[in-house]
Design a protein that fits this description.
- The protein is mainly α.
- Helices cover 46% and strands 0% of the residues.
- The chain has a single domain, classed as UDP-galactose 4-epimerase, domain 1 (Alpha-Beta Complex), CATH 3.90.25.
- The protein contains 5 helices and no strands.
């Protein structure tokens, strides 16, 4: 979250109106790797994963061009693994806030 906020602040200060600036890290992961990492951190078994047949147009990975923000001097400071842990922990601690929204 901190990385994203720093990036948004930088884009607001350094880009021109109408510019498209993607916030990325160059740290690509497959969907299944992210899912397994989430389960590990929550101490849940991988057997919770239900594999389904791929649908037409299924995305196996997500990637975006982030050269513009790099040229502005931004790079992520938080390691992906640490960010996942922080995010999962927040959701576990703040269930009263988000659960009614589901």
């Amino acid at each position: 979250m901190e990385d994203n906020c720093r990036a948004i602040d930088l884009v607001l200060r350094k880009s021109r109106p109408g510019d498209v600036v993607n916030i990325g890290s160059g740290n690509e992961r497959t969907n299944i790797d992210v899912t397994k990492q989430l389960l590990r951190h929550m101490k849940k078994p991988e057997s919770m994963i239900t594999y389904v047949q791929d649908r037409a147009g299924h995305d196996f990975r997500y990637s975006l061009e982030w050269d513009r923000i790099k040229k502005m001097g931004w790079t992520p400071k938080v390691k992906f693994e640490d960010g996942v842990k922080t995010t999962v922990d927040w959701y576990l601690v703040n269930e009263k806030w988000w659960k009614p929204l589901v």
